[in-house]
Amino acid sequence: MNIGIVVHGPNIIDSGYAEKLINLISEYGDISVRLGGTMGRTAVIDKSLEDIIDISKKLVPSDSLKIFHDAGVDVIFLLNYGKSSTTGQVFGYKVYNHYKNKISSNNIPIVQIERPGEEDGSVINWAVKSDLADEFADKLNLNIVTPEEIYETHIRGDEKSQTRRTIHGVSPGENIMVNSVVIGKSTSDKLILVSKDNQIVDIVGGEIKPHGIEKLGEVDLSKAIVKTGLLRKAKVKPRVLESEKSKNFKVAFLDHAGEDVYQFKDSSLVITVGDDTTLIASDILYRFNIPIIGITDGDLDKVVESGFKSKNSVIFEVESGNDDIIGNLIHEELFGNERVSDEFQNIDEVSEKIIEIINNRNIKYTINKI
Question: How does pLDDT run across 16-64, given as a tens digit for each residue?
């Protein structure tokens, strides 16, 4: 039997269940394992699982499912550890439906294992019926939940309006991220995002962050990736890899946390714009021993539990509301609006150029060297 396994997010990896389940599933046939999500890639590195779980490409889960579908595997497992049973089951529903729209024939069983080890953990058999769903539910002492139950309980009511989207499993005080941009904070356990003309205009059960809404721009609410709370909860000891750096002093520019940070892992330095982007990117780049120059304004929403930074990193904190302005100037003046430059010799030279740009705008700032 040829088996595809899609592992989603850091929680299933940090919990140790990804490795346990992969080993268990491998008893049934030849396996191939792929991952979805940037923070999940970091967890794979920290657990030394990159030889088992393919992290070479940044893929959303539905695309990973499609790769296995196109390869003609006999069954696909989707491993996830949602914040709650509700968030995990709704996640599976959305992933499966995105996947269905990408394939021509829906003839391969998909078995989702959700929150293993928890009392509310479950096994969901999407698409074609497979006896493996019942077998794994029994082995892992998990409940069987049907797609129909998930639809009736969580989805049916949300389909009445395409401009309103209910977010499940939320707690008060959590960050609300849409396509990796923090757009607000929850004030209730009932959260609804409201959009008009592809712009989010209201958060029922939450407070809008205007700067986040502006940075997000237009968004298709029905297709957007929405997350709440911390992206990665576990407190971990990061693993630093040996990585091949460019022979020249290569500087990269990153101004959005949703971009693929891993594409810059051969850089000598990465300039990051925004508090959350700086926190996420520096934490990932720490694994490759790459320093950053962060342009922030103190508007941090803490999207990961701990943020690591490589030695020699420099953080510029400018006056509130000016991080994007300075970022745009850096992108234009130092990079010619490109993403990578090899025009510099060292980090001190880059820092001096940034100081010059900030001073020309008469903006107050502080510098923190790591």
Answer: 999 999 999 999 999 999 997 667 999 999 999 999 999 998 899 999 9
User: What letter does residue 151 receive in the DSSP assignment?
Assistant: I
Q: What six digits make up the tokens of 342?
A: 């090899």
Please report, as a single letter, which amino acid is at residue 335. F
176 — phi, psi (to 5°)?
A: -110, 115
**Angle, CA of 356, 291 and 279, to the nearest 5°:** 90
β-pair partners for 194: 164, 202
% residues pLDDT > 70 (the chain)? 95
What tokens were used for 338? 């490109």
- Confidence grade of residue 102 (pLDDT, cut at 50, 70, 90): very high
The two tokens of residue 349 are 């030279």
In this structure, the number of other CB atoms found within 10 A of the CB of residue 224 comes to 16
**Rg of the Cα trace of the chain?**
22
Alpha helical stretches, state H, the chain: 11-14, 17-25, 38-46, 61-71, 85-100, 131-140, 147-150, 210-216, 275-285, 323-333, 347-360
Q: Which residue has the tokens 């393919």?
A: 54
Q: Of all residues in the chain, what percent carry a pLDDT higher than 90?
A: 71
**Encoded amino acid at 8, one letter:** H
